[in-house]
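Bumping my old thread because nobody answered last time. Still need a sequence for this structure:
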């Protein structure tokens, strides 16, 4: 019974996080677009999200949502380790923001 309850709670939490992804996508898209960059360190991106959107102060939750973005729209955002040990996020600006937003809305 406890396993079932934990599974239900985790599924609800995942759905809540997925519901926030369109807004997070918009934030990340705006950050990369305004800086005219395709690549950014995880630390820098996290800082920009939190500083520009103070309602997002839980770094762990933002990190989990970034992983969900990578899972749900892998052709738009991806991550990799740099040669100096920083984790880098890379976005594909050729993908249509409208189609990505629609895909995230469908995932809800």
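Sorry it took so long. Here it is:
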């Amino acid at each position: 019974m406890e396993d079932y309850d934990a599974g239900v709670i985790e599924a609800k939490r995942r759905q809540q996080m997925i519901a926030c992804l369109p807004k997070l996508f918009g934030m990340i898209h705006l950050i990369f677009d305004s800086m005219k960059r395709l690549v950014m360190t995880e630390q820098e991106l996290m800082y920009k999200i939190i500083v520009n959107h103070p309602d997002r102060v839980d770094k762990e939750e933002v990190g989990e949502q970034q992983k969900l973005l990578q899972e749900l729209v892998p052709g738009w955002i991806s991550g990799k380790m740099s040669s100096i040990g920083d984790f880098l996020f890379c976005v594909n600006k050729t993908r249509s923001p409208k189609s990505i937003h629609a895909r995230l809305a469908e995932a809800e």
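The chain has a mean pLDDT of 87. Let me know if any region looks off to you.
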